[in-house]
Design goal:
Layout: E1 10-15, H1 21-29, E2 33-37, H2 45-57, E3 61-65, H3 71-79, E4 84-87, H4 93-103, H5 127-137, E5 139-144, H6 147-151, H7 153-157, E6 164-167, H8 169-176, H9 183-199, E7 203-207, H10 210-218, E8 223-228, H11 229-250
Parallel strand pairs: 1-2, 1-8, 2-3, 3-4, 4-5, 5-6, 6-7, 7-8
Helix pairs in contact: 3-4
């Protein structure tokens, strides 16, 4: 994974709105990947599957943040053609192994074969290649977003099949009752980055905007998730309305 798709400052964004146009817009903007968010949005599998297809057509990597560690849901997402998953709240090596088992085919895991799906090119992909892609190309990213997860980071990263980690500063700080910029939170995030570097695996972070993304890249994150479609629309709408009203008042 040292030279994989989540390295070199790869840029992605969250997709939260229930419209495939969001994916098309982000591809046109030049993002390297999108993360279709099934944890913190009302998006369902049907919409996610269409988004995955559109992202692939635009040659943009489609990742999906699943809402939990449920093997059946993860299997369906991967058969829909997702390039990988972000698994939230992976707090221990045991949970990391559970997520990997849901993501990989035997003997590396317990994912069931569904070669007639998009992931298997509707039954046209040879079985051996379908299995190879699932076990070698599909990404399994563990989200570390608690003190327990950070403390167990070296062991989590050592689990075969975990390709990268994503540091969830929001939930980490919330669990501690601290602000995201508190020194204790920053120390824990630094420990997570150090563990990823020692394991030779990419470490990602979320950033609200350009300045935060540049700072995060300077800390050594291999990939960045910058903004999301809903907030981009909200901010743009607020800025536009405010600008127009200011202009109208100045000409009143």
């Amino acid at each position: 994974m040292s030279d994989g798709p989540l390295t070199g400052g790869a840029l992605g964004t969250w997709i939260k709105l229930d419209t495939t146009e969001s994916v098309e817009i982000m591809a046109d903007a030049g993002f390297d990947f999108v993360v279709i968010d099934l944890e913190h949005s009302p998006l369902g599998l049907d919409t996610a599957a269409r988004m995955i297809s559109l992202a692939r057509a635009a040659r943009m990597l489609p990742l999906v943040r699943v809402p939990g560690h449920d093997a059946a849901r993860i299997g369906r997402i991967l058969d829909a053609g997702a390039g990988g998953i972000l698994a939230p709240h992976v707090d221990s090596p045991a949970e990391a192994r559970q997520v990997v088992a849901a993501t990989r085919f035997p003997p590396l895991g317990e994912r069931g074969a569904g070669g007639t799906s998009r992931a298997g090119r509707w039954g046209l992909l040879p079985r051996a290649e379908y299995v190879r892609v699932g076990n070698e190309d599909v990404l399994c990213v563990a989200q570390l977003e608690s003190v327990a997860a950070i403390e167990a980071a070296p062991e989590i990263l050592a689990v075969a099949g975990i390709d990268a980690v994503f540091l969830g500063a929001g939930d980490l700080s919330l669990s501690l009752g601290l602000s995201p910029g508190d020194e204790r939170v920053l120390e824990l995030l630094a420990a997570g980055r150090a563990a990823a570097a020692a394991a030779g695996k990419p470490c990602g972070a979320a950033a609200a905007g350009a300045e935060a993304a540049v700072r995060a890249a300077g800390l050594g994150h291999g990939f960045l998730i910058v903004g999301n479609d809903a907030t981009m629309l909200a901010r743009s709408a607020h800025a536009l309305v405010g600008s127009v009203r200011d202009g109208l008042r100045s000409h009143a």
